[in-house]
Amino acid sequence: MKPFDTVLMVDWSAGKRRPAKPSKDAIWIGIARAGQPDEPVYCRSRIEAEAWLAEFLNAEREAGRRVFVGFDFPFGYPQGFARHITGSGDPFALWDWLEARIRDDEAGNNNRFEVAEEMNRLFDGPGPFWGKPNPDGWPDIPYKKQGVVYDQVAERRVADLEARAASSCFQLFFKPTVGSQVLMGLPVLTRLRRRGDVAVRPFESGADANVVLAEVWPGLIEPAVKQAMAAAPTDEIRDRVQVRLLSRAISLLGDEEFDTLMTQIPAAAHEEAWIFGIGHTDRLNELALLPMTDLSPPPLRNDCFALPAGVNWTPVDEALALLEKRLTPVTAVEEVALGDALGRVLEQDVVAVRSNPPQANSAVDGYGFAGAVAEGSHVLPLLQGRAAAGVPYAGAVPPGTAIRVLTGAALPDGVDTVILEEDVTLGDGQIAFRGPLKHGANARKAGEDVVAGDVALKAGRVLTPADLALTSAVGIAQLSVRKPLRVAVISTGDELVEPGQTAREGQIFDANRPMLLAMVQRFGAMPIDMGRIADDRDALRAALDDAAEKADVILTSGGASAGDEDHVSALLSEAGAMQEWRIAVKPGRPMALGLWQGTPVFGLPGNPVAAMVCTLVFARPAMGLLAGSGWEAPQGFILPAAFEKHKKPGRREYLRGRIRDSQVEAFKSEGSGRISGLSWAEGLIEIEDGERHIQPGDPVRFIPYASFGL
Ligand code: AMP
Ligand code: MG
C-alpha cells in the first residue's frame, strides 16, 4: 500500500461543548508527518471537529498528501447487530441508519438516548443499550446493566475481547461512555466518507484512497504516555499527550509494518471492525517514545516543482502558489540554549511556564496602598519598611495605610495602587498627596503581558533579539529549533574565472557566486561554496552529488536553459527530475527546478540580474518553507513613481529601484547584464502582469531589499 504522508489521531467525545480554554475530555486531534508532530488541535464541539477535519483533509489532498485518520471509538458493533437494526449485515448500512437519525448542535445537545431507545425497542426484552444520566428519563433504556442479557447479540466484539477492553459499545453512560461516543461519532465518519476519496478500515481495502479512517485506541500506548508524562512534568493535558504520541508513533511505522497492522485481522472484523495496532503495542510504545533528535524530516515529493502542463508562460503568482502548497520543512530539529537561538527557526511553540509579570508589581518609585483615591487632599499613615525589586515586603498592608514601594517591587498584600513619589509630601510617619487617583494606578497586574500557559511565540518564528527577551521572561531556557538550512551554491560556465585571477579574452569574473552566497547568508541560512564548474557534464554531475550530500538546497547559476551547453537542465532531465520553469516574468530566463538525489535544486539563469531577481522572488520564499519558517511574502510599499514607463501586458516586471525624496526612482537601464544597477538599487519595483503606462507621480509598488531579507 502506498505509504501515508500524514497521520491524524482523533480523541472523540460524546460530551457537551467544552470551554474555550483547552480542556480535558474534549476532542483532541494529534497530527504527525514522518515522526514530526504538529501542535495538537483542540476542538470545543463535534461540529467544530468535523469542520476542521473536512478542511484539513481538503488541504492535504491539494498538497498531494495521503492521510491516515485514527478515531478512538468502535467502528462497528458485535456480529449480527447491524442486521438486527437495518436488515443488512453491511456495517455501512448501520452507519447510514445512524446518520439519518442522530442530531447534534454546537452546544453538544443531541438525541443519542432517543436513538438508542429506538434500537433497544427492536430487541426482545430490554435490548442491549444501557446507562443514562438519570433513572427516570428514557424508559426504553435501563439505568444500570443489571438485568440486561446479551443473548441476541454479544456484549463485546472480538476486538474488544482481544484488547481486554473494560468498555462495551452498548454502555451509554457512566465512564467509559464508549457507547455514546460511537453514536455521536459514526454519523460524522459517514459524512466524511461521502467525500469519495475516503476508505474505512477494515471494511474497505483503502489501497487507492487518499484518506483512510481506522479505529485506533490511545490505551494501546498507555505505558508510553505514563512514561512521557513522568519524564517531563508539565501541565500538558493527558488527552493531548495521548494523541500527540500516538499519531507520531503511527507515522513512524515502516511501510511494511504498517501494511501488517492494516491487514492482519480476524474474519469477524469485516463486520465488527478492528482496533489498529492490537498485537503490536510494544512497537507502538517504543515508537511513541523515540527521541525527536533521532529524526530527520520527511522527504519532499518528486513532483514538488511541477507546473501546470500545457501552459506556455506560467504567471508568477501561480508558480508561487504551487511552491507554497508543496514544500515542507527539510531541516532537522535540535534543542539549543536561549543564548544560542538568535536567528533560528522555532520548531515548537514557546509556551510560557511563568506569567509576565509573575506577580503584581509597581511601575514607579512611590507609595502603595489599597484602592482608588477621591479628589481632594489625603493623608495616610506610612508603615515601616519597604518593598523593592527582588526584595518583597513580607507583611500585609492594612487598609488606610501606605508603604514605600520601588519600581519592579512585588506589591505587598493589601496594595493594588501606587502614587508617584514626586506627587507626595513625606511627613513624620505619614504621606500627604492630592487625589484623584484611579484604582490600580501605576501598578502592573500579574500576567498583564503574558499568562503562564499562553503561547508566547509560535512555531515557525525566526527568533529576534526581542523574542529572546520574551522567552527568558516567561521562564524558558531551552528551545526546540531547526538546524539552519544548508544551501550549496554552484556557478557554471566555461567563461567564468575567479576574481583575483587573470581573465583572458572572452572570460568574465564570476559575479553570481559571491552574490548568491551572500544572499543565502542574509536569509539566515548556511551558505556552502561549491565553487565554479566548467560546462562539463561529468564535472557538474560530481558537483551536484557532492552538494546533495552536504546541503539541503542547491542553487546553481547558468546552464539552465535548453541549449547545448545547458548542463544543469540536461542533468536534471537525465535524472528524470527536471521541471522547466518558464515563468511570465522579466527579467528571467527559464529556470531548471528539480530534485537531485532528493535535494531540491534551483537552476537559476546565468545572467546576474535574472539570477538575483529569481532568487528573491522564487527561491527565497521556497527556502523559507524548507527551513521551517513558513511562507513569507515580501512587504512592499506603494509610492509615487519618479519615472515613466510603458509596460506591455503578459508578464510581471521587476525594475531596479530606490526611494529618493519619497519617490521611486528606476535604474536608467533595464539591461539585464547591468550588475551596477543591482548595486545602485535599494530594492525592486514590482509592476503587475497586465499592461501599464506609468507616468511620474503614478503609484508603483516598491519592495526594499530589506523586505526580501537582504
Ligand atoms: P547561461 O544561463 O549559462 O546561458 O548564461 C547567461 C549569461 O549569464 C551569459 O552571458 C553568462 O556569461 C552569464 N553568466 C553566467 N554565469 C555567470 C556568473 N556566475 N557570473 C556572471 N555572469 C554569468
Ligand atoms: Mg552558461
UniProtKB/TrEMBL annotation:
Question: Keyword Ribosomal protein, does the record have it?
Answer: no
Q: Where is the MoaB/Mog domain?
A: 488-625
Report a single Gene Ontology molecular function: metal ion binding
Q: Which organism is it from?
A: Falsiruegeria litorea R37
Q: Looking at the keywords, is Acetylation present?
A: no
The record's Gene3D superfamilies line, in alphabetical order, gives:
MoaB/Mog-like domain, MoeA, C-terminal, domain IV, Molybdopterin biosynthesis moea protein, domain 2, Molybdopterin biosynthesis moea protein, domain 3
Q: Which residues form the signal peptide?
A: none
Q: Where are the transmembrane segments?
A: none
Name the chain's protein.
Answer: Molybdopterin molybdenumtransferase
InterPro entries named among the record's database cross-references: MoaB/Mog-like_dom_sf, MoaB/Mog_dom, MoCF_biosynth_CS, MoeA-like, MoeA_C_domain_IV, MoeA_C_domain_IV_sf, MoeA_linker/N, MoeA_linker/N_sf
Gene designation per UniProt: moeA_2
Report which residue ranges the record marks as coiled coil.
Answer: none
Q: What does this protein do?
A: Catalyzes the insertion of molybdate into adenylated molybdopterin with the concomitant release of AMP.
